[in-house]
Design goal:
The protein is mostly helical and 211 residues long. Helices cover 70% and strands 0% of the residues. It has one domain. Helix 4 crosses helix 6 (150-158) and helix 4 crosses helix 8. It starts with a helix and ends with a helix. The relative contact order is 0.12.
Amino acid sequence: MQIQTLLLIAPPILLALTFHEYAHAYIANKYGDDTAKQSGRLTMNPLSHLDPLGTIMIFIVHFGWAKPVPVNPYRLKNPKKDMLWISAAGPLANMVLALLSGMVLRLIFPIVDAPDRFFIMGLLRFMLIMSLQINLALAIFNILPIAPLDGSKILFGLLPTKYEHTIYLLERYGPFILIGLILFGQLTGVSILGGLIWPFVGFFSKIFGGI
């Protein structure tokens, strides 16, 4: 990846990850658990949320993560239901950023012809497109029902109690499944995760930003 491209996509990535984790912390605090707030995670400061390895992985394999927001379910009034919304807050926050990025794209660049990428307006358009697609990818990636992604906790909140044992088993092996899928894609060039994520990114990019 060229250094110029790296510098241009870094701000959208930092904003996407930071807003995602902030949303988790905000909703957890609203539901009565201030663990994240006391841990200094109820902030839009990227340094409070970034995981060094997870951030590097985004640039290398295009999948990554931030530091998980600490949540104490015993401090929630309805742990199962509240955890569902706390978990969903991150992907929803990224969808909001994607929608805003798309709206600005449509507002500033209503014409088909794109400005030269090496001029100011071209740079702005490129960063907005990256913000749109990065936030969509992060949202869709995180709602996959594989632990420790948010989707596993959303699934746990939706399924009846009788299936909880199955969910616990999936949570135990989820990280290994996720790492295996990422490594499989890197070694074979056939990305199963990409096949799941990028069609949705393309679909919502067209709806939100017309691209």
